[in-house]
């Protein structure tokens, strides 16, 4: 079974050729007719290109975003900043120096890694303490890799070296916003898998830790006999995507329903516009009052020079034709200024158009005559794409859609140019419904999970990306004031970044990674939840209180992340970190999800690209994940699909192909990441079946100095609440916490005989029976 591409894709073919099409737009002029007939303006946007840029840190990143720099994807933390793909104009390229940024190329074979905890052993009492975090081994395309993270209590003053039987490599220190994070390295290993590694410091510290395997080789869903997958054979615009989910519901009405979301989008629509003049002080912007498709595109404006002396400025309107008869001086030269023309248009043609001077300019310059010019909304989608508000909806799948089963919400394409992402969501739905009769695992999901899929949460921006400007990220809503950049020359810079428009850790609250500028690609909007698209997602969380899991699908970069997602740059103060229970559960789910991704073509999402997004990526103020986690207790993932692939022929990592990779690559990407979504449904089914609380044991390690190091080890992710004063523990008792950022449980140092009493609470809220143990100090 497969989908057929239903529309001509000339625009798409051009985009796919480079992975991200040139963002310039040249509107089609009408065929020339008589001289007096109005013509449509050709207001081309500046050409843009994708380049790799080194940015010296998060502050510079935020400043560049505020200045209109568009960071496309493939973020990679490096010791002295961030490497990132950027979609830049020639003018922006020339301005990199002002931010301390440079054109760059990523260092081959280097990437971030995940942290854990190891107990340090030091060379002498004066040495620094080195803690080895999690040590991950993985293979891909026949090549082995070690991913190691460590910390020194001397911070970046220590130079760390990783060694194993057969090799050694330096471990760079990573800082962000002036704060030390960790030392970490990703290195290839050409020999066998080592059993342990050692990290040594130039200051004398040393620590040894065992090697663990990242991802596992269990059977992936695509390997099951008779399992159907790979249903989509070309890129689909949002109209086609939603037609398909409607069709799926019609084909499977017994296990699906369409959930109409309460807020339609603001629409694939614009006012028709024109800009007259070239010098800023003499430019006049004109917008139709009607949307372009509702008559605005039929309005024409002429700036006519009378050719006689001492002519008064006036405006005449004949149907949709507006003529400005410019004023002249005693010599017959035009004397009307931009401000005067604007006032005359608004006074005499105010029922058709709204005029304004250029971006707040006083408009004292004399305007130039212009022939009759049709205003235009500059939108090029075919008639199959309706203008006007779009009725976004969710496909709900499951045998029990009554709130009695744990819910999973999947949304895709918050960012318009990410064309692979709706296919990931759609493919997951296709698989569930195609395999319902022939696959036991699928039947288990349908019986035990309540699934909601919003395949394109930004249909307006995505239609614009498909047919007008491939690089569009945001929705299409123009929040720029007339004194700003509301004119047609800025039309490629409008819209709200939907993933900066939520309520937790927002730019309004001082968090980094979103902008107040209406032309920035990370514009948060005029207020929290200002956009119908974000209001719809919050409505889903408010309406379906059985939602327990969430995934927002983005591209590209190959990351899987959760909270914390934002920080205040001064001091790098993050949103609250999840408790150890939730952090452990996230890691457990991530390994299952990513192991299923690996099953299709041996793609490995590197462990250093997994974790809290502010730790492995950057700060994104006002993101959806934090809103759903902190306000609703939903385990909320963000996903950047389309990560790098190891190339055995070149011995290096190849790019994930951009936002719109050539179709053969896109075809692989949507399938492998849909496998991860299916695994998320399996996790929800496991959650539904779990009816036993965790069991927790206390582990003690006696130290040479006579103290005892105590840790707790629950059988599954759980919060451990304990007391040491003889009282009975409750959920209000102290909780066993993580040792530090990206580390497992703390070490409790006991220096006198102590009785611990504890309970644990698992992710379903199931409470373990009260336990006790006395730790005796000799």
From TrEMBL:
Entry GO CC: extracellular space
SUPFAM superfamilies, per database record: Zn-dependent exopeptidases
Recorded coiled-coil stretches: none
Cofactor(s) listed in the protein's UniProt record: Zn(2+)
UniProtKB keywords: Hydrolase, Metal-binding, Metalloprotease, Protease, Signal, Zinc
Highest taxon listed in the record's lineage: Bacteria
Database matches in Gene3D superfamilies: Zn peptidases
Pfam hit, one: Peptidase_M14
Signal peptide: 1-29
Name of the protein this chain belongs to: Chitobiase/beta-hexosaminidase C-terminal domain-containing protein
Origin organism lineage: Bacteria, Bacillati, Actinomycetota, Actinomycetes, Jiangellales
